[in-house]
Amino acid sequence: MASLTLPQEESSFSLRSQDNSSSKGSRVTNEEWESAKTETEHIYIDQDQTLATTMEAIQYKYGLEASERKWKLKLKEWGFEKYLSSAAMKILVAKAERRAVVEHKDTAFREGPAASPSQQTPANVFYYTPCMNNLEDISGRTFGKMGPGSGFTMWNVITINEFRDRYPSINSFKELLSMSNSSTQRPQGVSAAISDNSSLLPSRLSTLAGYVNYFSKSISWSPEEIKLMYPDWYPETARNIAEEVLSISIDLSLRDESEKISLLNGDPKDIEVSAANNQSTFLPHTTHRHTLLNETTLSLLEMCQISPRPPEILLKALEMLDILFQLKLDPSMSDSFILAQICEAKGENDEAETFYRQAIKSFTKIEYLIDDKPPKVQHHFGKFLMKINRDGEALLMLLNVFTDWMSRIDRVGTGSFFSESRQHFYSDECGEIMKSLQVLHAKMNQDGTFAWAQASVSRLQTLRQGVNIFGKEESLLEFMRLGAAYSELWMFDAASLVFGFAAPRLEPFNSRRHAFERACAYGDYAQHCRRQGSPADQSTLELAFRCIQAVRRYGESLGPQEAHYELMARKDPALSRWMRGEGVEAEPPF
Q1: Segment Disordered: which positions (predicted)?
Q2: How far apart are the first and last CA of the chain?
């Protein structure tokens, strides 16, 4: 272990301090330490006092006097440690987040002594249940499972090329199976390098099949644990697979039909048969393949959206995924979402809409488990409706998911690491939906009628600077103006959705600065209610009157902005009469 070199004087002082501490601490017997153990735990752990406070209290009660160094050694021996290693903290944070999401519970941790010395596992030793025999690389080294304690960590996802170099013997998929399931020796007669064949499609397909097989069978953690601990692991692995599948599909499209048939009747067929024979009923194995297939399909669709490809290339790539994974996408839960995107990519709009609606319905039933999925699906569905020119429905879908995300920011709370990270996540998602709304408003503003609504959406995007920005008065006022714009366009469903979200959240604010703006906003809401024949217009106007009354109490001159909104308030007939003092003792004229 590397050590620091200290100046001579400082080193002498350090040595003298240690000598003194040692002689001082040696006077305390084991019996004295044990007599104070329970009280030490109560003060230091249960009451969460500092070490200095604990030492002072124990010395006062038991007369036990020892150096700080001796105390730290004894606390470590007893297991009374408050501070954990970074590796341990990663695990605890993941567990806390998981309990918060799944069980909606706060979590506190405490580390105590082992039940007995024989049960204690050393800090650098991990245990886990392996799910397949080890694979061996070209140098003869054995690689264990990916999971706790393995030498192959999940934050180092290897690429297809790195995998090919590490396991060249997988030029035949059957040889890969015999190597991974029976023997620790590489099959005889297998070339140590396939660089000469790496450009051949059968070899590339065999390598890809081995890549999928290796990752889906050599992970000791569950998919849920991986997503919590290493959220980028599945997407990175899936991206590697999708890039190779897409590249092979493009190569196939450049060949004539007879050559395609010759290529696909060779090793790829062996891959399909071998993969089918090698399917395991072991649940973790199957769920990893299923999760990886879902992620790969999404990654493939995203690549084709970023860089559009001919439909036949995408279809060929999807066929290859069926061969590689030997799993069918069932129309339920997340698979419905994937099928919707596949149908959308194929131009099968009716089928895509059916699967989108089925996915939204399925996710909504278990929203308490996966609270971020339903709005994500709705966002995609909104963009799909916009794509097929059903703009009115798209607007309602995007507004609904937008207000849904913002409601989550209010619910998640503040203060903890988890809540702040979730707030950032929700705020980022709001920003993405805001971009979709801006695109939709620009599309609907071809004749200029949506200019007011488009301006409100743009201002909302500008206001989105902080994590909890949507709880601020300025943003809520802008939402009220957006609702008024929709109402003026006789888009009552959209207006009601926006007013319904913003009006109750605006009511607790009572700042003088925005009083006239609030009055105008509630006046617009009351006008919208009157257009719909809703009785809520009177209670809404009462809120507007109270906003103005709060300003009039001060008797101060109005600034330019306040004067502007006062002018707007006077344009409302009911507000104008009340501001002129008409009615009974200047009360709201109801």
Answers
A1: 1-39
A2: 83
Tell me the whole-structure pTM to 2 decimals.
0.43
Task: Specify whether 69 is located in the same domain as 90.
Answer: no
- Residue 580: which domain range? 510-590
Least trusted range by pLDDT, from 258-262, 276-280, 438-442: 276-280
Which are the contacts of 78, defined by CB distance < 8 A and separation ≥ 6? 37, 40, 41, 113
Task: Find out whether 306 and 314 touch, Cβ atoms under 8 Å.
Answer: no
Question: Pick from 377, 396, 376, 401: which is nearest to 386 by CA?
Answer: 396
d(CA 236, CA 542): 56
- DSSP bridge pairs for 143: 135
**pLDDT above 50: residue 466:** no
- Total domains in the fold of the chain: 4
CA distance 461 to 454: 11
**Which three-class secondary structure string do you get for 457-487?**
HHHHHHHCCCCCHHHCHHHHHHHHHHHHHHH
Eight-class DSSP state of 146 = B
pLDDT at 348: 82
Measured distance CA(199)–CA(282) in Å, rounded: 35
Q: Which residue, chain included where needed, has tokens 């886990």?
A: 128
Report how far residue 322's alpha carbon sits from residue 272's, in angstroms, rounded to the nearest whole number. 9
Q: Phi, psi (5° rounding) for residue 6?
A: -105, 155
Which of the residue ranges 100-109, 440-449, 462-471 would you say has the lowest mean pLDDT? Answer: 462-471
Tens digit of pLDDT for each residue in 161-171?
A: 777 777 654 44
CA quadruple 341, 345, 350, 355: dihedral, nearest 10: -10
Asked whether residue 323 falls in the same domain as residue 210, the answer is yes
Task: Give the chain's largest Cα–Cα span.
Answer: 103
For residues 324 and 209, the answer to whether their CB atoms sit within 8 Å is yes
Overall average pLDDT of the 34-48 stretch = 84
Question: Is residue 543 helix, strand or coil?
Answer: helix
- On whether residue 40 sits in a domain, the answer given is yes
Q: Which residue has the tokens 């002082």?
A: 13
Mean pLDDT in the chain? 66
Q: How far apart are CA 165 and CA 153, in angstroms?
A: 18
**Pairwise CA distance, residues 372 & 59, whole Å:** 53
Whether residues 187 and 302 share a domain: the answer is: yes
200 and 108 share one domain: no
Q: Which of 18-27, 63-72, 252-261, 545-554 has the lowest mean pLDDT?
A: 18-27
- 8 Å CB contact between 464 and 431: yes
174/238 same-domain check: yes
User: Residue 542: is it exposed, middle or buried by C-beta count within 10 angstroms (0-12/13-18/19+)?
Assistant: middle
Name the phi and psi angles at 146, rounded to 5.
-85, 115
Identify the CA nearest to 224 among candidates 290, 280, 143.
290
> What letters, b where the CB count within 10 A reaches 16 and e where it falls short, cover 447-462?
eeebebbbbbbbbbee
Contacts of 427 (CB under 8 A, 6+ apart): 409, 464, 466, 467, 468, 469, 470
Look-up: residue for tokens 């995408």? Answer: 314
Asked, for residue 490, whether it belongs to a domain, the answer is: no
Q: Would you state the structure tokens that stand for residue 321, as one six-digit string?
A: 């995924």
